[in-house]
Structures are given as C-alpha cells and as structure tokens.
Amino acid sequence: MHVRDVFQKTSTSWSFEFFPPKTKKGAEALFRTVGELQPLRPNFVSVTYGAGGSTRDLTHDLVVRIKTTTELEPIPHLTCVLHQEAEIREILERYAEAGVGNIMALGGDPPADRAGYDRSSDCFQHAVDLVRFIRRFQGHPSPDGFGIGVAGFPEGHPATPNRLVEMDHLKAKVDEGADYICTQLFFDNHDFYDFCERCEIAGIRIPIVAGIMPITSASGMKRMAELALGARFPASLQRAVARCGDDEQAVERVGAHWASEQCRDLLDHGVAGIHLYTLNRSHSALEIYRNLGIAAG
C-alpha cells in the first residue's frame, strides 16, 4: 500500500519502528515482539538502516520477512552516507521486486569507525538528493512509484542550528516529492505543535507523524540523550524517573504513562499519525494502547 493511501483512509495513523537484530537469537526475539504487536494492526512499521549502510542486508531481510510472513506493511529506512547511485538503485530494485511500496529517505551518519569520513565522494550529499532520486526511480510496478517519508526535528536538527534554514531544507525535501514527515522523538508536545506551525508557515502541507519513544530505563534515558543530541527532558519527567530510584519496572511504568499522556494530547489535537519507537519490545506499546483505551484488532 502506498503511504498516501494510509493518510487518506485514516484520521490518525499508528506505526511502530524496529531495528534489524544482528543475531539469529535476536531475530527470533524480534519476531515474538512482532507477533505481540500485530494484533494492534498498525498502519505500517518502519525498519532502521545502520549508519553508512552497516545493516543493509539485515534491513532488507527483515523487511522482506515482515512483508511475506506477516500482515504488516514495512517501510525500510534508506540513507545517503557511503552510498553511490548504483547501490541505491539496486536496493530500490530489490524492494520493488519484493512488493515494498514505501521508503523512509534519510541523510544518515557515518559508522562509528568512520567518524572522520569525507562525504564529498558520496553521490547523495543530503536527504533531498535521495528523495529526488527515489521519486524519479522508474522500476516500481506501481504507477505512483515508492511512497516517501522524510524526517522532521521538533527540537531542531543538531547539524543545523539555524532553525529558518532547517525549515528550508525540509521544504526542499517536500518539494522533491516527500509524502509525509515522521519526527524525531520529543517529550514535550509544545515542541511538536510549534514545529507543525512552522511547517505551515513554510508552506509544508503533507502529513506530520509524531515520533514517540517511551522511556524504559534510567540508563536508556541517558543513552537517548547522547544519541538524540539536543533532546529535551522536561524537569517533571526527570523528577518522576528519579523518584523510581533503582526500580526499573517503575521507570518503565513512568515512561509508558508519560508517552500515553503525550499520545492522548496529540490525538485530542488531531495529529496525523503517531509513530512509536519500540526498541524491539512490545510492552510499552501495549501499555500505551491500554492506557488510551484503544482496542486491539
């Protein structure tokens, strides 16, 4: 299904994100999670792509397995870094052949062992270049080609301190053919609403999906702060996590409650979609659905 059809048929989409495990044991654990979440009937699920294409085959295999063995609609991530045009074309051809209808087009980062990598030799310098290439790709059996998602940053893109220029970059991706925006995680909905207003001012009219990551542990929150540079953790959330002490189950309950309240407020404000970053676990997503009174199936 083309992602445009998803937003035309539902007032608020629901989706989950997975990452490709590196071991057979991890893969089987993930598919237990997939089995637990499938009854929630998300509109689609996304699969991440390692820095510099480090999980290229793992991502492809997971996407195809989801497509062929479940009722879920997978949307694979695809990045620019360390890729040439022929490689991207081959990846798109493989996905088209497998019946995959949508791609999440991202700039991406170099792998940790290539932190000083000179990107001048990369064919696609920015996500907008990848969006343009995917939109012009002719190898998809659907007359509409691939549906294309791009990233948005409610708290600001760490590589673009100038927020006006940041919106120019996002508008350029939309103008090249992006069908929807999925945001980076955030913990204060005011940041999301402000981002949506700035998109409107910039003339961006495609659906904006809110990316929500439930906190599952205090250590995970610290890792989140390191990986999502610039992520703001409201003081009230920090106090709630601190009150849990060393009780990790309590932290997970706090995280699910906070995310549930974010989702409730987003639904009340007519958000186009909610995307849950699952970390390949089902518990928090299931808890959020229960808290919101959303029936499975």
Helix coverage percent of residues? 40-55%
Low-confidence parts: none
DSSP strand count = 8
Task: Please work out how many helical segments DSSP would assign.
Answer: 11
Structural class: alpha/beta
For the record, give the distance between the C-alpha atoms at the N and C termini, rounded to a whole number: 19 Å
Q: On the 0-100 scale, what is the average pLDDT?
A: 92
How does the overall form come out from the CA principal axes?
globular
- Fraction in beta strands: 5-15%
Report the top-level CATH class. Answer: Alpha Beta
User: What count of domains describes the coordinates?
Assistant: 1
Key attributes of the depicted protein:
TIM Barrel; 45% helix; 14% strand; eight-stranded parallel beta barrel; single chain; alpha/beta; 297 residues; 11 helices
In short:
The chain is globular and about 55 Å long.
Describe the 3D structure.
The protein is an alpha/beta fold and 297 residues long. It has one domain (3-289): Alpha-Beta Barrel (TIM Barrel). 45% of the residues lie in helices and 14% in strands. The protein has eleven helices and eight strands. The protein has helices spanning 3-9, 24-37, 56-69, 85-97, 127-136, 163-175, 189-201, 218-227, 235-243, 248-268, 283-292, and strands at residues 13-18, 44-47, 74-79, 102-106, 147-152, 180-183, 208-212, 273-277. It has an eight-stranded parallel β-barrel with strand order 1-2-3-4-5-6-7-8, surrounded by five helices. Strand 1 (13-18), helix 2 and strand 2 form a beta-alpha-beta unit. Helix 5 runs parallel beside helix 6 and helix 9 (235-243) runs antiparallel to helix 10 (248-268). It is globular and about 55 Å long. The model has no long low-confidence stretch (mean pLDDT 92).
